[in-house]
Amino acid sequence: MTIRAVVKGVGHYLPERVVQNAEFEKTIDTSDEWIRSRSGIERRHFAAEGQTTSDLAARAAGAALANAGLTVDDIDAIVVATSTADLTFPSAATMVQARLGMTRGFAYDVQAVCAGFVYALANANALIVSGQVRRALVIGAETFSRLMDWTDRGTCVLFGDGAGALVLEAHDGSGTPADRGILSVDLNSDGRHRDILYVDGGVSTGTTGHLRMQGKEVFRHAVEKLAETAHTALEKIGLSGEDVDWIVPHQANIRIIEATAKRMQVPMDRVVVTVQDHGNTSAASIPLALSVGVTRGQIKPGDLVVTEAIGGGLAWGSVVLRW
Ligand code: UT7
Questions:
Q1: Alpha-carbon Rg of the chain, whole angstroms?
Q2: 285 lines ligand 1 (CB under 6 A)
Q3: CATH code of the domain in which 77 resides
Q4: Which one of 23, 46, 155, 249 has the lowest number of neighbouring Cβ atoms within 10 Å?
Q5: What are the Beta-ketoacyl-[acyl-carrier-protein] synthase III C-terminal domain coordinates in residue numbering (predicted)?
Q6: Which of 173, 190, 207 is a domain's end point?
């Protein structure tokens, strides 16, 4: 018998304020046309002043719990993927725990930037299959607007804020890819690429810092590495692109999403795309897209879903699951 971490509920939260591309035309040398054609982004949400990552995360978690028909008393662990925790410490996850009124179990953050949700899913899966917890909340939440240099047109138009969450529950499986739940994981990182995507602040500088990115270089790595990691995760369980019902990719750039789908030989009508509405929300982008994909009626129980992401580190990876 095999234990599987099965998705019991999904939910998301987006801050109220929506910023259209045209708004940036007032302050920097850019255009709606450039942003749309180079990235696929049309609008993004920005958190209100004083609104923090743990606030967005707790709201997404509440929606996922409601969707699962569960309460915090049913949850054993909270794993939050974020690079924009409210404070240097404690973790955003313990703040979410407090916001939800959860006084048992344990909570911690995972930091793998845009690949964070894939890492957090892999981590929560390990907790469940090893029998340490029965149910886990896995959340991706970010306020990347707080890391923007508003004079850098190469980055500030690309990112947004938001949060998405899944409830995972231990179920008995047969050990075959026909099982529901997480079926395969592939994680990678290569610290030699630190300088192409990083924040120039932190504890060592005593500042929060701003996001710095060599877009073209990151783009090149993304196109090469995302299809590869998805392929590896599928191959581990004897599956291929043909078996995939939905790719739910990290939403950074429509051109990366399309190139990855093409390399995986999966048509775009089997890819959940939200980048036009959310921009790049880093670790929040995959759970946001999963939640939107379910709401739209795209992802259904039994579907084979492949998530893949890459970000600062570089860190990248893929999780294959049956919804
Ligand atoms: O989530 C983590 C992973 N992140 C990513 O996956 C992001 C990966 N990279 C990308 O998505 C793309 O590289 C970008 C969307 C960031 C940029 O697209 P690009 O086609 O690689 O453009 P580029 O950086 O090569 O810039 C082309 C031109 C440059 O002008 P020159 O030097 O050719 O005259 C830029 O200065 O576009 C210019 N440019 C802009 N123009 C108008 C850069 N940003 C803007 C802007 N508006 N906002």
A1: 18
A2: no
A3: 3.40.47.10
A4: 23
A5: 234-323
A6: 173
